[in-house]
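SAMPLE LOG
Freezer: B-3
Tube label: C17
Construct: single chain, 530 aa
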Amino acid sequence: MDMHTVVDGKGAKRGLERVVVGDGRASGVTASDVLAVARAGARVELSGEAVAALTAARGIVDALAAKPDPVYGVSTGFGALATRHIGQELRTQLQRNIVRSHAAGMGPRVEREVVRALMFLRLKTVCSGHTGVRPEVAQTMADVLNAGITPVVHEYGSLGCSGDLAPLSHCALTLMGEGEAEGPDGTVRPAGELLAAHGIQPVELREKEGLALLNGTDGMLGMLLMALADLDTLYKSADVTAALSLEALLGTDRVLAPELHAIRPHPGQAASAANMLAVLKGSGLTGHHQGDAPRVQDAYSVRCAPQVAGAGRDTIAHARLVAERELASAVDNPVVLPDGRVESNGNFHGAPVAYVLDFLAIAAADLASIAERRTDRLLDKNRSHGLPPFLADDAGVDSGLMIAQYTQAALVSEMKRLAVPASADSIPSSAMQEDHVSMGWSAARKLRTAVDNLTRVVAIELYAATRAIELREGLTPAPASQAVIDAIRAAGVEGPGPDRFLAPDLAAADAFVRDGRLLAAVETVTGPLQ
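STRUCTURE (predicted):
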């Protein structure tokens, strides 16, 4: 990969000139490359090694296509229709037909970054030399990405086995100059018109190429990689807001001591505790247990914050391991092997990716749940240790943040529903030939919603905790906490005062978390968090 490295708050690289695919190996692409293409619009180029690998694999497919013996995907039908041998005169039509018939998605369009990740990951596998696709087809895929043309891909259509068939088919349809796509200006037009406007010649698919463009886990993998990047930021952000809530509640930071976490050596837990401790360094609020409400221990939502967030961090680490393995894979059926064989296989099944997508949704829901409990504690005068009801200016006349917590609770409740695993389901298709499927695409789609909701939940805790700290008159917050308060106020999120229209404040807090400004503010004092 040939690129400069500048990473933004969404995990995307900025200022990139190109991403080069690659060295003839599927493992030549990194998660950062995917984010660069999907989110930052990095240009894609094929290396000489990739072109050589494509040419060699295509020679094997052409040789098999010339023989009378049927070879799946080369000279047969597909799925439950694989028993029919297709003559040479019908093979171009066969490849064109599989793309047209499989482009059967329905529902709203999926996001541009998802489609770009999907296309780039398919190109990565095509360039591995295991698919038998011609170099000119791979080049057309790169040209479409570089032109900013985004095929219209729909929400519904993938069962996660054989890969993300319908979404990938809509992308392949664009390569053929058919269907609809979005241009770089955001306007949806016929794909043929967009290709012509950018000087791109539509491809005419040959033996195996239609199938090779459709048969992969690229959609679910792309969404997994983007979720991992977002969750890295969110879990650090949640450590910050947990620390702010602990401070606002006059809690003790003694439970964050490294020696306590060393005797239960989960790495995520230790990292989360270390982050909270770094944020709270120098605080004048921690440990002020009030005389009229003595506390031996803080509530679980405060005291056990590192244990819950840490478990999520370890889940992320496992999911990243799976993603790296999948990223190093060449997923197709059949595949071209180095010894010249073309073999059918089941590597397209999305179970490994689907499981971790669901696991991440569970972890995100639990992190949101504990954050909401801390927020509720800040607002309850019976449990907030001296804060006004709902952090209101004049309780009774003012409602304060009462309904902000309602919104947070609604988000958490939805996240609990989204935590129900999609991968526990399977529904047979293709006349029972594909009788067990992964539902990985569905797992990925609901995880994207869960990650969005988690951002909002963390933002509401941030909004409440900063307000509560400012209401602790006469006590000095930690320097890192003060840096957050100063930055969020400078961003237009107002502090304590009479009731006002809250939705704009909450939206601004959401943006503050989402684009990485919360972490940037903290790290000016703490240095990089773990």
